[in-house]
Automatic annotation (TrEMBL):
Residues 111-312 form the O-methyltransferase C-terminal domain. The active site is at H243 (proton acceptor). Residues 19-84 form the O-methyltransferase dimerisation domain. Keywords: Methyltransferase, S-adenosyl-L-methionine, Transferase. The keyword Glycoprotein does not apply. It comes from the Bacteria. This is Hydroxyneurosporene methyltransferase. PANTHER family: O-METHYLTRANSFERASE CICE, PUTATIVE (AFU_ORTHOLOGUE AFUA_4G14580)-RELATED. One of its GO terms (biological process) is methylation. Gene3D superfamilies: 1.10.287.1350, Vaccinia Virus protein VP39 (3.40.50.150), Winged helix-like DNA-binding domain superfamily/Winged helix DNA-binding domain (1.10.10.10). InterPro entries: COMT-like (IPR016461), COMT_C (IPR001077), COMT_dimerisation (IPR012967), SAM-dependent_MTases_sf (IPR029063), WH-like_DNA-bd_sf (IPR036388), WH_DNA-bd_sf (IPR036390). GO terms for molecular function: O-methyltransferase activity; protein dimerization activity. The keyword S-adenosyl-L-methionine applies.
Length: 334
């Protein structure tokens, strides 16, 4: 067991390491090194950066094994660093850029102010996240890419580990670019899908579903889940939705779904369910982001989800672990 001071000082150092990764992601360093090593001056020229400053960041990046020395003042990309290229399937470049986006970066730095008065400092400066995204198309696209990359591990397991009903129609509530719906429809050829999201998102969802060859088995609808959701479907998926809202708003969403669904239907809530112990867990990290960015947004335990379901006339019927800290909670009408 490492000494506690080592853990604390390691956390202090993490901000510098993340800043180095953010610089690498923003400048496209991995893309520029994809074809082989470059000296720092040439790399800086291609990145549009100040060479002496970039050299100092490269030194830190080498300590993280994302780049390595390939000779005097020469750097090459490592296998680990390949994940920061923008053209690889499992790229985390967009994820790093989103977490370092001005508003997100401010939100985490202002967490003490949020905790002091219980109101998000991010919202005070930038407004609600989704209004912020709607007003900033480049940030909105980056956010969609981040959510897609983050969802890849548990989306694949959702299709593999959960048995969807035959010939079902599924509504993906706040389905974003449509990556989850596309994965489910590919794995279940008899199913049809409806994706509901805000107007500024739906264009990208149509593009995704068309590119996946699913335009004839899917429909994209613009709308607000607080106003209502498409009625009469067999399955309603809420993936990383409820954790953005406090209990009152989460309950409004669930009640709208309960009102719209068939009596034999089911609700699938894909979230990071918090454990009851004090061990490190991804959900605890994400919970602080929810605290920083939303007023009332939070990760929840299984018991807290079950209580929400009960208030919406639903009952927790199954839990499927999807890996990467994520769980699929199935609820059915009581």
């Amino acid at each position: 067991m490492p000494h506690s001071d080592d853990l604390l000082w390691g956390a202090v150092g993490d901000i510098s390491r993340f800043a180095a990764l953010l610089t690498m992601a923003e400048l496209g360093v991995a893309d520029h090194l994809a074809d082989g090593p470059l000296d720092s001056a040439e790399l800086a020229r291609r990145c549009g950066a100040h060479a002496p400053s970039l050299r100092r960041v490269l030194r830190e990046l080498a300590s993280l094994d994302v780049v390595r020395s390939a000779g005097p003042d020469m750097y090459d990309l490592t296998e680990r660093g390949t994940a920061l290229r923008s053209d690889v399937p499992d790229s985390i470049r967009s994820s790093i850029r989103m977490l370092g986006e001005e508003g997100f970066w401010y939100a985490m730095g202002a967490l003490p102010a949020t905790v002091r008065d219980g109101s998000s400092a991010f919202i005070k400066r930038h407004g609600h996240l989704y209004d912020h995204l709607a007003a900033n198309p480049a940030t909105s696209k980056m956010f969609d890419d981040y959510m897609t990359a983050r969802a890849i591990p548990f989306t694949e397991n959702l299709a593999k580990r959960y048995t969807f009903p035959e010939n079902a129609t599924m509504v993906d509530v706040a389905g974003g670019k449509g990556h989850i719906l596309a994965t489910v429809l590919h794995a279940n050829p008899s199913m049809r899908g409806i994706l509901l999201d805000l107007d500024h998102v739906t264009g990208r969802a149509r593009e995704t579903l068309a590119a996946e060859g699913l335009a004839d088995r899917s429909e994209v609808v613009s709308g607000d889940f607080f106003a209502g959701v498409p009625a009469g479907a067999d399955v309603y998926l809420l993936a990383s939705v409820l954790h953005n809202w406090d209990d009152d708003d989460a309950l409004r969403i669930l009640r709208n779904v309960r009102q719209a669904m068939d009596p034999s239907g089911r609700v699938l809530v894909l979230e990071v369910a918090l454990p009851d112990d004090e061990a490190p867990h991804l959900g605890k990290d994400i919970d602080l982001r929810m605290l920083a960015i939303f007023n009332g947004g939070a990760e929840r335990t299984r018991e807290e989800f079950a209580a929400l379901f009960a208030q919406a006339d639903l009952a927790l019927s199954d839990i499927v672990e999807l890996g990467s800290g994520s769980s699929l909670l199935e609820a059915r009408p009581r």
